[in-house]
Amino acid sequence: MARVLELVLKSPTFKKAPYTSQPALKADAAVARQAAAKSLVLLRNEGKTLPLAAGQKVALFGNTSYSLIAGGTGSGDVNRAYTVSLAQGLAAAGFAVDAPLGRAYAEYLQAEKAKLPKNRGLLDAAPVIAEMPADAGAVQQAAQTADVALLTIGRSAGEGGDRKVAYDFNLTAAEQALLRQVATAFHAQGKKLVVVLNIGGVVEVASWRAQADALLLAWQPGQEGGHALADVLGGRVGPSGKLATTFPVAYQDVPYGGDFPGKTLPGKTLPGSTTPANALMGQPSENTYAEGIYVGYRYYNTFKVKPAYAFGYGLAYTTFAYGKL
Questions:
Q1: Is residue 127 included in any domain, yes or no?
Q2: Cβ neighbours, 10 Å, residue 75
Q3: Is 123's pLDDT higher than 70?
Q4: SS3 state of residue 188
Q5: Does 92 map to a domain?
Q6: CA–CA distance from 74 to each of 91, 150, 178, 200 (Å)?
Q7: Cα(94)–Cα(56) distance, rounded to whole angstroms?
Q8: In this structure, how many other beta carbons lie within 10 angstroms of the beta carbon of residue 53?
Q9: Geometric angle at alpha carbon 260, from 255 and 261, rounded to 5°
Q10: Can you name the residues that pair with 60 across neighbouring β-strands?
Q11: Res. 125 pLDDT band, cuts 50 70 90
Q12: In angstroms, rounded to a whole number, what is the distance separating the alpha carbons of residues 73 and 280?
């Protein structure tokens, strides 16, 4: 308690330091942009696909290329004045974004967002808009006129709910179809495909990553995410992020996968409550953490389970070599 009080006595509030309700929003945004750019993780970069050459025409596919998932749910999000999409970030950085594709996605997203519930609780999962089906003719046209394809895969995650395996950890059928369609069309023209992962937790990548010439992990990059992505994609900032978690090859490789999400206990009440369930704490349940101390990379290292991408992994645009010491 003494240490807590000492901290209070040293605080600016206790010393009546002057404060302002007008924060330096532009300066803070610059910090957010820099932090986001430095947290991006380059997972794959075959044939030096990235960075993109200045002024290239980019065909943008995927809902979240135009509607960035900036933050998660509950404590995984903050109030923000705006969110910069990847399309906006690339355009501001001098890239030519395929206009017909942009219009098609804008119309689709506007129509789908109008169908969503108007009021969402703090801990409610972000509503998911199904991936827009790609028109074969539009994909072929883009492959002929654009210099490179960029496809974003989006996932919302955060406080208040468990993730699922189907259509969350694994790609949806629509995402897999779009990925194959775009990869086939652009590779037939001798052009590259870059995939951006705008996600809040790991997803399965091993089964499809070979279709992508480059794979950039953006996580949920905040209000300046579109600018930060453009900074890295265009080479203004070099990718320097490293994985703070392991990407497994398959869900079966996750040490706790067999027990998750545990089992519900019908008829039981929540701790300190007389009710069997509530919106905040869910259903009374029981979980057995059978993996013991073998959590995360300790499990993969100890039992020689090969991951898709290991803890600490992250590429750079610079190549390094060790010579004779």
A1: yes
A2: 12
A3: no
A4: helix
A5: yes
A6: 31, 30, 31, 13
A7: 8
A8: 10
A9: 165
A10: 150
A11: low
A12: 13
Q: Is the pLDDT of residue 202 over 90?
A: yes
- Across 181-186, average pLDDT: 98
Q: Could you tell me if residue 200 is inside a domain?
A: yes
Please state, as a whole number, how many other Cβ atoms lie within 10 Å of the Cβ of residue 34.
15
Element (H, E) at 36: helix 25-39
List Cα–Cα distances, 181 to 39, 151, 185, 230, in angstroms: 30, 11, 6, 24
Please identify which residue in the block is written with the tokens 């057995």. 288
What total number of domains does the chain contain?
1
- Whole-angstrom Cα distance, residue 259 to residue 289? 7
Distance CA 307, CA 313 (A): 11
- What is the dihedral angle through the alpha carbons of 55, 93, 48, 223, rounded to the nearest 10 degrees? -150
CB 162 within 8 Å of CB 117: no
* 300 falls within a domain: no
Burial class for 9, CB neighbours closer than 10 Å (0-12, 13-18, 19+): exposed
Q: Could you tell me the pLDDT band of residue 166, with boundaries at 50, 70 and 90?
A: very high
Joined together, the tokens standing for residue 88 give 């906006």
CATH number at 70 reads: 3.40.50.1700
pLDDT of 66 > 90? The answer is: yes
196: containing domain = 29-233
Residue with tokens 């189907």: 166
CB-side neighbour CA atoms (13 Å) of 156: 22
In angstroms, the CA 36 to CA 230 distance is 11
CA 113 to chain CA centroid, Å, is 20
